Amino acid sequence: MIRVAVFLLALLISSASYSCTVPIYGEEYDALIELTETQDRHSYQIRVPAKVGGSKLVEAFLAYTKLPKGEFMVGEFFTKIRLRKSSGDYVSAVFDVPEKEGYAPYVQVRWPGEVCATVAFSEFPHSD
User: The domain spanning residue 83 has which CATH number?
Assistant: First the structure.
């Protein structure tokens, strides 16, 4: 019985050491997001690398936050952006960004890895 308990405890401790508690992120990953306005109102094109490091796929989301610019953005509404293969090792999409009063839109891109995901954020360019 003691052996079983020690084995289970060792298993839990070793698996926790391989887990990722915080994703990989930073300005160098934010810079990988190319976000441009299209000719249509509230429409944008996104272009990102299909892979970063050892990732196998990429996911992009349109999100909204109430926080002021410059703070760590926590999304309250998420919509998945359907990315398609484009030139070279990139994926892209054209998508609409509806206005939500009191919220600022941003894009979150995730490259899931074997242990840790890589995450990037981008605010929208404005051409007022």
Answer: 2.60.40.10
The reply to whether 8 falls in a domain is no
Q: Residue 6 domain-assigned?
A: no
- The pLDDT assigned to 43 comes to 95
Residue 90 belongs to a domain:
yes
pLDDT tens-digit profile of 11-45? 455 444 456 778 888 999 999 999 999 999 899 99
The torsion angles phi and psi of 39, rounded to 5 degrees, stand at -75, -25
